[in-house]
Amino acid sequence: MLFSINFxxxxxxxxxxxxxxxxLALVWKGIDPRQQRSARIPDSDxxxxxxxxxILDQTLIVLLTRIYSAFGQDDEGAIYxxxxxxxxPELVTDLYLQRRAAQLAEFSDGTASEILQVELASSERIADxxxxxxKWRVVGIVxxxxxxxxxxxxxxxRLTLSPELGEWRFSxxxxxxxxxxxxxxxxxxF
Length: 190
What we know:
Elements: H1 10-29, E1 39-40, E2 47-48, H2 53-71, H3 76-84, H4 89-108, E3 112-125, E4 131-143, E5 148-164, E6 167-186
Antiparallel strand pairs: 1-2, 3-4, 4-5, 5-6
């Protein structure tokens, strides 16, 4: 026996009419059913469904600062939890493992670092979607066996933001450029 649906029978007409009214109401109100869900801007009480302008920049800097603050921790659980506060669960492990590899490299060559400042240099939305091309600077102190000095790393990445877990977080983090600039200021012996 073949399965068939009669779209003109009374129960099906009601369902189709209800679906049509819902779509009509959304269009009339100017609501795109594909529009992003609303979420809280991290570290604020502002809830929005669209990130743009100063709100976008504020969101990026808060999330980047959370990640770099996590990188500055010694406890593995604190590093993992700090990263998890800025990205979706599927990105946490990759970022955590990248940081652990960097820490092991620092320990092996006697280098220690401390992050002083994370600063957004630029951000540009890619089309009208949740993707952003961003550039930021991280200033820190790098300690070697015999001296310490300031260093600035400049990063560029394509970042994707999603309104998940009640607030905006990174759902994509594709680093495409890193440059390092040694700052001439030397500090006390390490």
